[in-house]
User: What shape does this take?
Amino acid sequence: IPIKDVKNMLNILKEYEIYTIGRIVAFKDKNFAVLSPEHSIQLKSGGTWLDPNSGNIPWINPFDKYVWDYNIAIAKEASLLGFDEVQFDYVRFPDGAKKYNPITEFLEYAREQLAPYNVNLGADVFGIITRTWDDYPEDIGQTWILIGKHVDNIAPMVYPSHYSTGWYNLENPNAEPYL
Assistant: This one.
């Protein structure tokens, strides 16, 4: 449910000294992708690429500087509203991307652009990347050590469903989340 009065909500949260985080879906933004297909990931054969792993949702193009500026404009607005932190979620490429620029270039650029706004910068990442030194085998543009250079906080998403057979010596990690 959309929050109708964000300023009032933030004021109440500040009264209780609650640290506020504005979550921004960076590159898996279906609304932007549908409304601006020219800024979406495109097929070589033409048309907008649809993510088969997410119910055929289009992604906006992580290589597109216009897309970067769009996301940073949202982050600036969130900081001006009073959020303590802006956190980029889906700051990655779709699963199995074979060629990409390091996602850290976007985060470095965001850090520079947000510096005058005195807001902390965070990134949601797959929990799996905390166990790998490079982006392999995920191939989504998230490298733990490189991302950490450009953000104040990293939030690893450690959903058991992200781990396949054999992780942590478990046949089905999703069935044993506490292990």
In short: Helices lie at 6-15, 30-35, 65-81, 104-114, 144-148. The beta strands are 21-25, 50-51, 57-58, 85-89, 120-126, 153-157. The chain has five helices and six strands. The radius of gyration is 17 Å.
